């Protein structure tokens, strides 16, 4: 019973700290002190310390001195994450096509998600595109049936959840995404490994370059408050619902 209660506290602490990082309440480079966080959450330091270790494994917290800091968002981190995503997602495309796993139902789901992305983009609700966009990319990997690829994609998707907000400050990036997704979907319909991988690489490379350009143009102290305001509005709407 005691072990179950401890695990429950660790899970609560993990979710709370993770959500604070993803909503930029804890900002990139900010100290993640188990003492300070435990005080805020009104719990002992042990479950908070365990939660911070889990978040280090997730790539959201980095070791620093005796404690940790929220992982930075910089050019090196963006490039590194998207190199990893390209490896996983392009391999998934290869598996799907070579093993004959492309079905009408699968293509239909991809198009449905992309239509949601396009609709929210047309409405200028760019932050609402993040969820269907994430589902589209995760589905491509999950459909392979590979547990390890799916686990890796989940790991990268969690880190990518912060980077998505750079779409809000990039120069027209959001308007191009539905077309890039459609090119990828058409290549999958044609069962062309070459075209599908080319489409995926173009999509990820373009995103990488736009995100890097965005952080070079916008100082963190200017774009992070914008993200916080959007997240606060989303939280308020969820609470009202």
TrEMBL record:
Database matches in SUPFAM superfamilies: GntR ligand-binding domain-like (SSF48008), Winged helix' DNA-binding domain (SSF46785)
Gene Ontology molecular-function annotations: DNA binding; DNA-binding transcription factor activity
Pfam family of the protein (one): GntR
InterPro entries referenced in this protein's UniProt entry, alphabetically: GntR_C (IPR011711), TF_FadR/GntR_C (IPR008920), Tscrpt_reg_HTH_GntR (IPR000524), WH-like_DNA-bd_sf (IPR036388), WH_DNA-bd_sf (IPR036390)
Entry keyword annotation includes Transcription: yes
Gene3D superfamilies in the cross-refs: GntR ligand-binding domain-like, Winged helix-like DNA-binding domain superfamily/Winged helix DNA-binding domain
Residue span, HTH gntR-type domain: 7-73
Keywords of the record: DNA-binding, Transcription, Transcription regulation
Protein name according to UniProt: GntR family transcriptional regulator
Record organism: Candidatus Acetatifactor stercoripullorum
């Amino acid at each position: 019973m005691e072990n179950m209660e401890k695990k429950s506290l660790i899970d609560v602490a993990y979710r709370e700290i993770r959500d604070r990082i993803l909503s930029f309440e804890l900002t990139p480079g900010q100290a993640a002190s188990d003492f300070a966080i435990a005080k805020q959450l009104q719990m002992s330091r042990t479950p908070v310390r365990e939660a911070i270790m889990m978040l280090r494994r997730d790539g959201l917290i980095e070791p620093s001195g005796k404690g940790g800091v929220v992982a930075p968002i910089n050019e090196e981190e963006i490039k590194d994450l998207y190199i990893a995503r390209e490896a996983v997602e392009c391999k998934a495309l290869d598996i799907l096509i070579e093993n004959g796993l492309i079905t009408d139902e699968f293509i239909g789901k991809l198009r449905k998600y992309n239509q949601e992305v396009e609709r929210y983009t047309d409405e200028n609700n760019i932050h609402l595109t993040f969820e269907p966009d994430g589902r589209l990319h995760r589905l491509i990997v999950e459909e392979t049936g590979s547990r390890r690829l799916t686990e890796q994609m989940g790991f990268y998707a969690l880190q990518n959840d912060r980077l998505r907000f750079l779409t809000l400050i990039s120069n027209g990036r959001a308007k191009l995404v539905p077309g890039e997704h459609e090119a990828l979907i058409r290549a999958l319909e044609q069962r062309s490994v070459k075209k599908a991988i080319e489409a995926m690489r173009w999509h990820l490379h373009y995103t990488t370059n736009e995100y890097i350009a965005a952080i070079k143009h916008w100082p963190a102290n200017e774009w992070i408050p914008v993200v916080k305001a959007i997240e606060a509005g989303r939280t308020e709407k969820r609470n009202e619902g």
